[in-house]
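Example (one chain per record):
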Amino acid sequence: MTRTVTGTYGGVSAEQRRAERRRRLLDAALDVIGTQGWSSTTLRGVCERAKVGPRFFYESFADLDALAAALHDEILEAVLARVLVAVDAAPDDLPARTTAVFHAVISEFLDDPRRARVLWVEAYGSEALLRRRFAAMRRLARMAVEQSQDLLDLPPDGDRVLRAVAMMLTGGVTEFVLAWLDGGMDLSRDELAEISVEYALTVGREIPAIADRLSRSRSDS
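Predicted structure:
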């Protein structure tokens, strides 16, 4: 097989080969971290799973933390993209949007529990992943705010309360899904999603009243 001045071998460029190796490393990291856990993840183990020589690892990632961070970012972006597609297809009302958001997020993790483990669980074993876990929670909460803000009759300063409740809902439903994945819930997959939606709607409809009470309380103090 001959090499051209462009670095092409057998019709595949050097850039394409690097991209393929990077993809294999990300897929291997998902499998290793998502099944064995961060504490059991080694550079050698990921490279062996990816069938990529260790020396080629460093052309894409500085270290294991960088690989895990890239995988975390990729999973989060996939979740957000799935949510946007679902919301775009949903009717323009609060129940429909809420249902679309929560079904999309929950399905993303139940379809491949390894993704939930990388995004939420194994973050506690890595400082790089832990920072991204908090950022991911904030981004999901911000998306929930964006999708509900124009459908709620919020009083002055209500946006602040909406953001706080969105963060609580995001964290609560995340832990609910993780408990279900761990086998601690006597619920079907559909029931898991429906309870999450009903919980979010029940709390969401109370946000204007909560914001109004907090506003009156501040005025009286």
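Caption: The radius of gyration is 22 Å.
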